[in-house]
Design brief:
single chain, 350 residues, 4-stranded mixed sheet, 16 helices, 10 strands, elongated
Length: 350
């Protein structure tokens, strides 16, 4: 039973610095603008300057900041802060630090850091660093102001040979092909029909690189050509038709799942968002705010929405399961009506 139901009882707990009261309330001091746990060892405030809140979130909503001495900040916020600091170190280091080095710099155990980072972002620190370097490389290649070799080193790769070993995984093709708009790369594609209209499925050597929905097949092909203007596009392949059939079957019955590799190409932030989207179960919904919190960037709600809009792999990366905080269904690259149909179909299966 909660023994701290009145302000008198709460004040008594503050005066005695009762640590057992921490899970029941926090107190804030008007003169300092700080809120604390009941067991805080800070100098005792005057009663007339103190007000009580059910939790830290309520105190912060009222404009108070967390006490550094008693670590009153919500655990979720502390985790987000840790991940944000880790991301900054990974992004600004010439050579990405190892997990042990990162833990030492952040004063936490490597095990704890790895677990929290993976829980908050969906990526390990190593995978995040790799995705960030790949994005820097894409930007340098697209800029065209330096050689491919210089771009590789500028992006933080210690050796060009090590990068080339994983170039296909990070770019979906060789770097010179990427700079040339897919020049020399081979992409198989096919256009079909499903209950949502026309559907185009494209696959690079690495995996599915696009699932596009629309009304007109020609418009979908134009979108693919815009994405890879110099790639060799091969359509009408009988073997590839089976891949398209599998994707169409997944669209019609999402509970079946899709057992095909994906060629996901985006910024480090986009990849974190897209990974979080893939973890939203069939029949469930999440808000942009919830996704931002899951990846450790609670203030990046607008950026999450932009990452959803940039997704080119419909349904397999289920951005249709993301709704506004009030539950409103809006904002879908392939049309709100298709989003409503997908959600209604998945809800019926759950």
């Amino acid at each position: 039973m909660n023994a701290f139901t009145t302000d008198d009882q709460r004040w008594q707990a503050v005066q005695t610095r009762d640590p057992s009261a921490a899970k029941h309330f926090v107190y804030a001091v008007r003169t300092t603008g700080v809120y604390c746990q009941p067991g805080c060892k800070s100098r005792m405030a005057k009663r007339e300057n103190v007000e009580f809140f059910a939790d830290a979130s309520a105190a912060e909503a009222a404009g108070y900041r967390a006490c550094r001495r008693c670590q009153a900040k919500p655990a979720a916020n502390r985790r987000s802060d840790l991940v944000a600091r880790a991301c900054r170190l990974l992004e600004t280091s010439d050579n990405p630090p190892s997990l042990n080095q990162l833990g030492t710099q952040l004063a936490v155990s490597p095990f704890h850091l790895h677990r929290v980072f993976k829980d908050e972002t969906g990526l390990t620190p190593k995978a995040y660093a790799s995705a960030f370097r790949a994005q820097r490389l894409r930007e340098s290649l697209n800029d065209g102001q330096c050689s491919v070799t210089d771009a590789i080193y500028d992006a933080g790769y210690n050796s060009s040979s090590r990068f080339y070993e994983s170039a296909d995984q990070r770019l979906g093709m060789r770097p010179r092909q990427y700079r040339a708009g897919g020049n020399g790369a081979t992409i198989h594609f096919a256009v079909g029909q499903c209950s949502l209209g026309a559907i185009l499925v494209a696959q690079s050597e690495k995996g599915i690189c696009a699932i596009l929905l629309g009304e007109a097949p020609d418009a979908l092909l134009e979108q693919l050509q815009d994405q890879f203007p110099k790639a060799r596009l091969i359509g009408g392949d009988a073997d590839y038709e089976r891949v398209v059939a599998e994707v169409v079957g997944f669209v019609e019955a999402p509970a079946l799942g899709l057992d095909l590799p994906l060629d996901v190409q985006g910024t480090a932030f986009q990849e974190r968002v897209w990974q979080a989207l893939r973890e939203v179960p069939v029949g469930s919904r999440a808000s942009y705010t919830e996704i931002a919190e899951r990846i450790g960037a609670p203030k990046a709600v607008r950026a999450v929405a932009m990452a959803c809009a940039a997704n080119r792999i419909a349904v397999a990366i289920p951005c249709h399961r993301i709704v506004r905080r009030d539950g409103d269904i809006s904002g879908y690259r392939w049309g709100v009506e298709r989003k409503q149909q997908l959600l209604a179909r998945e809800t019926a299966l759950s």
